[in-house]
Every structure is written in structure tokens, then in C-alpha cells.
Amino acid sequence: MTIDISGLPPERVLFEISPLAELGLALHALAEPGHHPGLHGWAAATSAGLAPDLADRLCEADFLWRTTFSDVFMAFAGLTGASPAPTLAGELDLLDRLDDERFVLAALEFTCGSSYACGGLSALSDPVRRERSLELAANRGPRQLDFTKRLLSDPVSVRAWLRRLLEDCDEAFFADAWQRALPQLAADARHKTELLRHKGLAEALRAVSPALSVDADHTRITADKLADGRTTAVAPGRDQLDQGLTLIPSSYGWPHLMVLHAKGWRPVIHYPVAAPAPRDPGSVELLTLRMEALAHPLRMRLCRSLARAPYTTSELADAYDITAPEVSRHLSVLKKAGLLSTRRRGRYVMHQLDVSAVARLGSDFLETVLR
Known about the structure:
With about 375 residues, the protein is of the alpha/beta class. It is built from 15 helices and ten strands.
């Protein structure tokens, strides 16, 4: 996923905090606690404390934060010259300023994933998109279908209903959660801003996430995600206030690294401020190499031996009744994937499986697909 930043002034790269974006991720953590092992206790206690009526209403609109993370939680990016507000009420006011077309496009994002970056008419105006939206909403369940029908027939009242729902979440649990998270998020935004100012964009992005990088010419930011997409922070012909990149920290976000790249919106990178362990799960390319390397049945059999003890190529050839060159080819694949360690013992080269790298594959896979 890439963001074009050619010619973007450094002062238009901003680290800011957003209570509405944080509320969206808090709702996601409640809906999908399996994505967030570090938040199990909070999610369980918060869910248990919800009033039945509020829990029931959350089910109606949960595709805004469960299936995808809707851009409605970063409404400022869809408004000219707007920035995240310091309070949830202020951000809900920004959400109210989105026109119905843009709001519905963002709210029904899960129904048009293939055309997300292309923009176009919303389901309010496009009969084909309307039918597709209703069809996909029906797959989510009767409540979600009813919500979608009401949104398409009367967006004004549904938007008021949603605002009230988010205000009730604030009263029920989020106001306290935000006050606890605010000092850490504000400190992180200040720290990253100082890194950007004194050490440059590459260093600041590296501190945000190992999955983010900028090319040598500082023309393109790349997010190493399984999702594809591209956007620009410097769209030609747009107001200068509409050009820029915003990065928002989240205490509820790990392992998600999200990039808002909808057409006509300023790009936003929403990143977690902390992970359960200070390690890099590696790139998508490395994960792919490792899984492909281990998928071959003969290499799996070789790993059975290599996990127990170091072996030479000739020993493996004898043990599995194959030629030494064939063993070498398979070992080369495993080594390229970073799954083998080698050491020399006299005139022999010994190979052994890196058990710790293999043991991490499950968590690396999950973190990569959720990133």
C-alpha cells in the first residue's frame, strides 16, 4: 500500500490524536477480542457492564467497526482544512459536516471493497451499488440489513441515531478509557513529531512501525500490508489545506496498522503505540517465503530431522534416499526463508532448523493478516 508524498512540505506531515478514531478501535476490540489478546480483560469487563439496550444497538451498526474500520471515525480527513478535534463531541460535529454521499460511502465501505479507492457515487445515488450494498448487508444479518435499509432511505435520522449511539458509548465506558489513554497518546504524538523534526521522515516512520518505509527520494511511503491500495497526499488541483498526511496513535490498535486511502480523502495512518512484545514480525514477503518453504512435503520431512539436531547435506541425502544436490536445493529454499542456521565443523557444513523462527510463524501470520 503506497502514499504519494512527492513535493509535500514537511510541515504537512502531522502527528495528532483523535478521540473518535480511538472510540472506533475500542468498539472493534469489544467486537473482536480475539484480535487483541492484550485487551481481553478490559473487553470482557466492559462488555459485561454494558446496558442491554446499548449492547443491542451496537449490534445493529457493528459492521462500521467489525468487518472494516469505517472512515466515518476519521471524518476530519474528508473535510477541507479540518483536523481531529480535542473532544469526542467536537469530532462528532465534524462527522455531522460530512455530506450524505460521503457519509454513506464511508459507512457502507464493507459493501464496496473493490471500488473503495475509486470513489464514485454512493448507494444513495447509484442503483447498482445500492442493490449490492443491500445484498452484502443481508449476509451480515437481519439487523445489519435493517440498518442499511434505514440508512439508504433516511440518512439524516440514521446519522442522528449513530451520533446518539456513540455519545452513549462515551457515557458508558469510553470517557474513562479516553482519559486513561490520553496521556500516552499525546506523549507519543509529541515524541514522533520531535523525531520528524530532528531526524527526518524515515526515522519517524520507523518509530511508528517497522512495516512503514519511505523511498530514498522521499516521494512515496510504503505500508507493508497484505492489502493493496494507493493514494496521494498531494492531489493536484486540490486546496493546499486538503494536502497532507496525518498519523494517529492508538492504544487499542495493535496489531492493526490502518491506512485511510479513500479517493477524495486526505490519507491517514492509524497506528498502535505499543505491541505485546518488542519485536518485528517481519515483512509480508518474508512470511510468504517461510510458509511456501515449509509447505513442500519433502522439506517438511527434512525439517523433522533438522529440528532435532544439525545434519550435513550428505547425511540428509542418505537418510531420505535422495541425491545430495536435491537436498542442497531444498536447504537453499529454507535458508533463503531464514529458517536454517549453518555452522562449519571442520570440513563439514552443519545445518539446523531455527526452531524459534518456526515457532513464531503462527503469531507472525496472524499479526501480518491483521496488520
